Amino acid sequence: MFSGIVEEAAKVVAVEKHESNVDITVSCSFTDELHIDQSVAHNGVCLTVVRVNPDGTYTVTAIRETLERSNLGALKPGDLINLERSMKMDGRLDGHIVQGHVDTTAICTEVEEADGSRYFKFCYKASPEMVAKGYMTVEKGSVTVNGVSLTVCDSEVDSFRVAIIPYTFEHTNFCRIQPGTTVNLEFDIIGKYIARLSELRSF
Description:
The chain is mainly beta and 203 residues long. The radius of gyration is 17 Å and the shape is globular.
């Protein structure tokens, strides 16, 4: 379980394909605190640490389904990836409830300067089936973009905007997002449960 508050935008140092899986090696400031089997969100995707390396890096493995649902398959050495370790139960929930289970990807279509902050617009493939499962946004609701907990504005059927303050821009990989960039989306779990309950009422 995560909160969508990114700890660090870390550098990818190696990407290795093994059959249908991909090993991703990352260099970050808290590698010495990690251990094998620990969960870490990478651009919002919950992955398990499989190796802690002597050079201060660690490695995780992404399977085919993860690669198909997220932007992790496009990673290359030098890219920045947003990291968040799992939430402590005795801490404050500063973002919202994030599972680390990416629902789909979206494309950035617009970046607008706004008196020191920035508005990012994202578009994604929508369908009645997706909406019925709760894969949607609502005005002033929560959404996770590349693992960052954000508030939705200008919610449409297949798009939305988010406002990014300078701190978030500088401390996450939003600093590298531009029109054409693919990002990971996780829709709000509460909306998914409500959608499922509404579906089951017909039985």
